Sequence to fold (800 residues):
Amino acid sequence: MKQNAFTGNNKDFYNNIKESIDNATSIDIIVSFLMESGVKLIINDLKNTDCKIRILTGNYLNITQPEALYLLKNELKGKLDLRFYNVSHKSFHPKAYIFHNNEDSEIYIGSSNLSKGALTDSIEWNYHFTKSEKENDFYHFYNNFQDLFYNQAVTVTDEVLRQYSKSWIRPKYAKMHEFKPQKDFEPRGPQIEALYALDNSREEGFDKALVVAATGVGKTYLAAFDSKNYKNILFVAHREEIIKQAAESFKNVNPDKSIGFFYGSHKETDKDITFALVQTLGKKQYLNENYFKKDYFDYIIIDEFHHAVANNYRNILYYFKPEFLLGLTATPERLDAKDVFALCDYNNVYEIRLKEAINKGFLAPFRYYGIFDDTIDYSTVTMRNGRYDEKDLEEKLMINHRAELVYNHYLKYKSSTTIGFCASRNHAEYMAKFFNENNIPSAAVYSGEQGEFTQERSEAIEKLKNNELKILFTVDMFNEGLDIPSVDMVLFLRPTQSPTIFLQQLGRGLRISENKKYLTVLDFIGNYKKANLVPFLLSDNTYDTKTLINESVLEFEYPQDCFIDFDFQLIDLFKYQARNELKVKDRIILEYNSIKEDINHRPTRLDLFLRMDDTVYTAMKQSAKINVFRDYIGFLNENNELTKEENSLVDSVAHDFLNTIETTNMTKSYKMPILKAFYNDGDIKMTITDDDVYKSMKEFYEYKSNGVDMIRHKTTKDYLSWDKKKYLSLAKRNPIRFLQKSAGEFFQEKDGYALSLNDDLKNYINLDSFKKHFEDIIEYKTLSYYKDRFEKKGSENELL
Fold:
């Protein structure tokens, strides 16, 4: 006889629910909230049934966890209809599980929401009865469910769920320490959300993606879960400890797959999962078929993807042709003048940054103290290529007066485990010496020649964990790959001009630890360049000088449970720096010269686009008059940067043509393959045939980041099966027609050809400078289109 009454504290209720799922032809669930633990408990039961499932839940007070919803949508796909109760200012507390089968219908009603505890060992009262037993009572509940579901609810679409997740904040009563080190080896929290986004991205047609996730939320395990069904996997990083830690994580998720390494003396080429140091694999001597074929790896992961702008990373990215490429990073900041998004064609599928990760309880909160440091005048420190000269800087930092300032503030706050970030090896050695002399056991940890107070990295870390040392002073060695959850204080002892480095170093102390309530951050700030970025980095707000001048940083919404305190002198300093910023036009020229010196050649449009400081780029785009991308030859001419041959282009028909294509409007990518057909790999054509158009269109859209545009529209989504006739039809009704309409002086009809260039361009098409500018414009316009497409999608989601 079936059990009807349940009082919890055992698995009886869940076991009966499971049996009902197995026998059901359709399922209706209505609960106040959904938890990840509850969904994980029943998800396989729900997956194994072929019936339709309707779930109605509440979103009041942020109790329903976003990851629970993502897990349901990802696993149940089209057979799930998921909705939020959508009547404001009305409590929503029903808990009922309704099952329909061929013989009868049944309902469990009581106090159990969809959480593991409520379905198993919590004290929950529930009652079960069938429609045949109590038909009137059954329909009373069922009809009300129907009304709530169809008339008082909103469908949880991807856009609705994304907005809910972004605004979701961990309820005050929930424990921060629920997000412990990964031991169950199944996706959780943000990993579930990211996996859903990655699956959707592949369905859209993308073959590469970027995931931006704050340090500590489990990026490596995410990669292991996402790549689980691929045959040969490559994981690339830049530090030995990172690939060794990653190998352990992947082995936990894929215990049956073989593990190999490619660095130093290790050159394993026949394993299922290969962990490689970029310094080794990125050498061209290893990027050939004697080691790996170009298509050997089905799935490639680049860890700490913000490094991938370096040459060895680029060598790897250009050589291998995987089915899927995943970039992982915590800090893809354009403010650091290298655009990481571009390497994945701006397909940033998932992002959870510092503020959101703390709000959701995945990272520890911080107490930040911005301490005014007038012991050094940074205006007297030599600058080289926009950076402080290391030797001059360390000499000015290594004074007792400043060390005493740091020491006295350190003593004000209780700390058992501290990391201090210094400007140089000598600076780290000096600070370790000073603290040891003041009876605080400390060590300096850095690469290269060792000093009196230096200790080997692994030995120093163990001593720090065991409280034999109180502080480790380092330079950049601990920015990445360090996993010491017990760190409860970080000292910023250097002028941090890089957002990437600032967030990396902050992240070293944000991992959750059993006895850590918060991280204490002591930031010693002087009048160094970009000091006023700090409030924006801590709050995830966009940099704005007006905000600084109006002192609005004091009103910023910082992460939940975080405390931020700036010395009043710093507020004045931030305002002073904001008021004295250069005009945008002058900043553009300064940025141009800095990039030129950094890359050792005159920047192309593409170089400038990829490397320009984001604050400069944003300000420049707001005014067409100073936007260098609207007439790059004119900008170069104004600044005496043209070659002799390029000077012949100025104010010519060639200049006008190049200016026309660099400013052409692109709501879709269709114009690019037409321009590429004319460019013809540098052997520029004055006319293009139907065959040229077909070949260029087909090649262009076989690249998956371009093919996405075709897949998204009903009339073109079957493009992979198109013949020449269909490609030509699209080309002639869209890009060819619009090029003639908007730039008819350059793109003209000609008998026997698909399209022709103005005859006046004949005198220029063989000039190297004309060819280079033509190619640069195509590359820049394609990449900027990817960026605009990504930002447009983001802004549409914000509106929704």
The chain is about 40% helix and 15% strand. The chain has a mean pLDDT of 91.
